[in-house]
């Protein structure tokens, strides 16, 4: 017991010291110019990119999840692609000016950012969050996932060394080396932490939201993919299998269930088999259900990011190395239906829809089960159908004719490269955006007066309609009194003006 207590105390002390150093470093960083900031960010991005392969291997070895070659790609997106997307943004001083409205916008950082990192994408998320924090003159303190402490810290050390070498103050990048939930929660509520970037399990995200601090959290995916009757089936299925196999399904935007129009169902089955899918029979499906969800409503963590061969072993199913993923036909949706859950592994549910209306209803039920606000994928040659789904579905990203996993994070689409995907109010998040540098800035606005306004004095009132009518009559009398000669009887005009004043004072 004493060892555990001592460890928790050490973790809390480490956290407090990291915050102290980060706060001091961030105060110095405030004086840096845009040019200095950009030099530091570039140095960090280059160093991270150069270590993408080595850190990918380290992440797989430590967590047992995913594919090193795929994690390398994620590291490259989290470093180089993120850098390319933010390098030209102004984040220091005056960043925009509207001369017509006479408004000036000034960038101000939040301060110290607490970043929670998941076990599924540990090194790429560390790169990404560090880059967007440094670009916006924030300090960052990272809490790694307990199962990915070593690789996450190694990624942060790469960033820190590059940043300091480029002139950043020491302490700007910090981390918690002890796997302590208490230290992580204390970090999120520390008075000198100003923003939380929470990517991880639902419990941590809820803790971030209840911390009393501004927080960007993300919800679960459970992404449906709809193969509409006009889809190029061969191309669509190839993409879907590639996407689901990517890093063994660890990206939250990965497709979880296929909904296919019945008119192309047989063609879809043929293409799934041709692309390495293993179609489970009824007995194998029952075995796999127990492996996916031993406790109703909860996914077995032992299958997350694991290979089909490893999962087959857990289910007592014999397969060869050519199998890339499992597929089982399903008709039900619910917490008690394992194949309908977000599995984060190479396992698919396959639903058949009579038409787009039924497909839309199935997609909605799957999203309601645990993916509202996240993403939906559709393969179709009918753009009107894609737009209909975009309008009607409660998601923040609609991926059309592409790999959902890679497309949602900006790899194959024009979306902002990001490892933190907001789910909007659909999923209980503050934003539906792909989180990037601009989300880590306060924008101050200086506005010049461009409109004149008359403020009435206390007690003053406008004339009544009757008084206004009488005033109009008096004015006409004044004009008539001028006569054809244009000369004015001064005494008469004075009397008439006094009558006007009396009307206003009534």
Short description:
This protein is of the alpha/beta class and 506 residues long. It has 17 helices and 15 strands. It has three domains: 226 residues, Aldehyde Dehydrogenase, Chain A, domain 1 (3-Layer(aba) Sandwich), CATH 3.40.605.10; 194 residues, Aldehyde Dehydrogenase, Chain A, domain 2; 41 residues, no CATH class.
Give a verbal description of the structure:
By secondary structure, the protein is α/β, with parallel strands linked by helices. The chain folds into three domains: 2-218 and 438-446, Aldehyde Dehydrogenase, Chain A, domain 1 (3-Layer(aba) Sandwich); 223-416, Aldehyde Dehydrogenase, Chain A, domain 2, CATH 3.40.309.10; 465-505, no CATH class. 45% of the residues lie in helices and 16% in strands. It has a seven-stranded parallel sheet with strand order 10-11-12-9-8-13-14, with helices on both faces. The protein has a five-stranded parallel sheet with strand order 5-4-3-6-7, sandwiched between helices. Strand 8 (223-227), helix 9 and strand 9 form a beta-alpha-beta unit. It starts with a helix and ends with a helix. The model has no long low-confidence stretch (mean pLDDT 92).
């Amino acid at each position: 017991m004493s060892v555990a207590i001592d460890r928790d105390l050490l973790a809390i002390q480490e956290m407090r010291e990291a915050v102290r150093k980060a706060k001091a470093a961030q105060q110095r960083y405030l004086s840096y110019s845009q040019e200095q900031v950009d030099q530091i960010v570039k140095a960090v991005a280059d160093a991270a990119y150069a270590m993408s392969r080595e850190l990918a291997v380290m992440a797989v070895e430590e967590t047992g999840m995913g594919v090193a070659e795929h994690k390398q790609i994620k590291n490259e997106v989290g470093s180089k692609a993120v850098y390319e997307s933010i390098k030209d943004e102004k984040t220091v001083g005056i960043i925009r000016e509207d001369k017509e409205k006479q408004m000036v916008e000034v960038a101000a950082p939040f301060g110290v950012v607490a970043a929670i990192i998941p076990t599924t994408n540990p090194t790429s998320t560390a790169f990404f969050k560090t880059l967007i924090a440094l670009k916006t003159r924030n300090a960052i303190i990272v809490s790694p996932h307990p199962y990915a402490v070593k690789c996450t810290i190694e990624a942060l050390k790469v960033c820190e060394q590059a940043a300091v070498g480029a002139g950043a103050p020491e302490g700007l990048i910090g981390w918690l080396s002890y796997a302590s939930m208490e230290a992580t929660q204390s970090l999120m509520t520390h008075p000198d932490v100003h923003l939380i970037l929470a990517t991880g399990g639902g419990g941590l995200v809820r803790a971030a939201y209840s911390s009393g601090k501004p927080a960007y959290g993300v919800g679960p995916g459970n992404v449906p993919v709809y193969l509409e009757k006009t889809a190029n089936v061969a191309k669509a299925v190839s993409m879907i299998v590639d996407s689901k196999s990517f890093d063994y399904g660890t990206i939250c935007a990965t497709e979880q269930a296929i909904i296919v129009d019945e008119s192309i169902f047989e063609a879809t089955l043929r293409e799934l088999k041709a692309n390495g899918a293993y179609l489970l029979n009824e007995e194998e499906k029952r075995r796999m259900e127990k492996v996916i969800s031993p406790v109703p409503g909860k996914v077995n963590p032992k299958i997350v990011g694991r290979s089909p061969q490893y999962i087959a072993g857990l289910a007592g199913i014999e397969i060869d190395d050519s199998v890339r993923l499992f597929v089982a036909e399903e008709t039900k949706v619910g917490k008690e239906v394992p194949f309908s859950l977000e599995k984060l592994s190479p396992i698919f549910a396959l639903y058949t829809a009579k038409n787009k209306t039924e497909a839309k209803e199935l997609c909605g039920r799957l999203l309601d089960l645990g993916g509202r606000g996240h993403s939906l994928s559709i393969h179709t040659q009918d753009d009107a159908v894609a737009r209909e789904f975009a309008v009607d579905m409660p998601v923040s990203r609609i991926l059309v004719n592409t790999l959902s996993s890679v497309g949602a994070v900006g790899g194959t689409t024009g979306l902002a490269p990001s490892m933190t995907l907001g789910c909007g109010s659909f999923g209980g998040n503050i934003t539906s955006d792909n989180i990037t540098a601009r989300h880590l800035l306060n924008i101050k606005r200086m506005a010049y007066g461009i409109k004149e306004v008359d403020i009435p004095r206390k007690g003053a009132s406008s004339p009544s309609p009757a008084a206004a009518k009488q005033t109009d009559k008096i004015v006409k009398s004044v004009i008539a009194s001028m006569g054809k000669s244009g000369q004015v009887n001064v005494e008469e005009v004075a009397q008439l003006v006094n009558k006007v004043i009396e009307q206003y004072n009534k």
